[in-house]
Design a protein that fits this description.
Layout: E1 4-7, E2 11-15, E3 29-33, H1 35-45, E4 50-57, H2 60-71, E5 75-81, E6 88-92, E7 101-105, H3 121-126, E8 129-133, H4 135-138, H5 141-156, E9 160-164, H6 174-184, E10 190-194, H7 195-200, H8 208-219, E11 223-227, E12 233-237, E13 240-244, H9 257-270, H10 275-289, H11 301-310
Parallel strand pairs: 1-4, 1-8, 2-6, 4-5, 8-9, 9-10, 10-11
Antiparallel strand pairs: 2-3, 6-7, 11-12, 12-13
Length: 317
């Protein structure tokens, strides 16, 4: 039995060397990366046992993804498919004004046909937390229903449900996302949402503290976390709002920072920490992740402990 079970697609990421264009690149780095598996790995690194659920093509690329996740110590429970393909994405990274450009190639992927009945629902109901994101229902109409069914099954089994809003404008419009994701809200206990997504999709204007309180009260969430990038995060729990500043960091790769934050927060809550302490660990984990290439937070709890204890200076000594 795992502490946390996550569900979603993990892609293969192909990246040319920093600053190089896709159209001229002659070599690529390859990493496996997906929000739900990233969260599972971060949670595991912070002390919570994790399982990743997905539907994956029975191909060399599909096996590559599953093998990489397993190498991080995560238990995998996948439905192997002979239909559909392995999703990929391409990442150009450069300084301003170009910035980072992501190109998805995830049409007709195996997971787009995944249905709740294909999975061992008892595995979700035996876990302490079930986690997924707003990326998953964006991938197909089938997955919109599957996500709702899995959240419902988790709730019926007494499992806490956690959800990262995680809006991706290259997958669907704000109107589509708002209509689908707000329908899922009644089945969610812990919501993580970026302040920018609240503005873009939910139409909220104003202070993030007010947003956290409004969401928590209106939708009866147990906990709401509003992330604000370099400005830190807001946590709402039991009608009390907590502020958490971001730790200073030298950014090598921002990809996966939010997933590292969320995985650490869930893990420390599972270990009995209060919301302010869990937010400290989440912010420290996110800061360390930004120094690490790739999608995954390859770090130890001791490193995070040191950053929390010394206010972000420990790793520079």
């Amino acid at each position: 039995m795992s502490d946390i079970v996550t569900f979603g697609e993990t892609m293969l990421r192909l990246s040319p060397p920093d600053g190089e264009r896709l159209e001229s690149a002659t070599e690529f780095e390859v990493h496996a990366g997906g929000a739900e598996s990233n969260v599972a790995i971060a949670a595991d690194r912070l002390g919570a046992t994790a399982t990743w659920l997905s539907k994956v093509p029975e191909t060399p690329l599909g096996r590559r993804v599953v093998g990489e996740i397993r190498r991080h110590g995560i238990e995998t429970d996948v439905v192997w498919s002979h239909r559909g393909r392995q999703g990929t994405y391409y990442l150009e990274q450069a300084g301003e004004p170009r910035g980072t450009n992501v190109i998805y190639d995830r049409e007709n992927t195996a997971i787009s046909t995944a249905e709740a009945r294909e999975f061992d629902i008892e595995r979700i109901q035996d876990a302490r937390v079930f986690f997924t994101t707003g990326i998953t229902p964006a991938l197909s109409s089938t997955l919109r229903e599957t996500t709702a069914n899995m959240l419902k099954a988790a709730r019926q089994g007494g499992t806490t449900t956690a959800f990262d809003f995680n809006y991706r404008n290259k997958l669907w419009s704000p109107d589509e996302a708002r209509e689908t994701l707000t329908r899922l809200f009644p089945g969610i206990d812990v919501l993580v949402i970026a302040a920018r997504d609240a503005r873009t999709v939910l139409g909220f204007e104003g202070d993030p503290r007010q947003l956290a309180h409004k969401l928590g009260s209106q939708y009866d969430f147990t906990t709401v976390i509003v992330t604000r990038g370099s400005e830190g995060a807001i946590g709402w729990h039991d009608s009390v709002v907590h502020d958490q500043e971001a730790y200073e960091t030298d950014t090598v790769s921002p990809i996966g920072t939010g997933d590292a934050f969320t995985g650490a927060f869930i893990a420390r809550r599972l270990h009995g920490e209060d919301v302010p302490t869990a937010l400290e660990y989440a912010a420290a984990t996110a800061a360390i992740k930004r120094t690490i290439p790739g999608d995954v937070a390859l770090l130890s709890k001791d490193e995070v402990d040191a950053v929390v204890k010394d206010g972000g200076t420990a790793l520079s000594r």
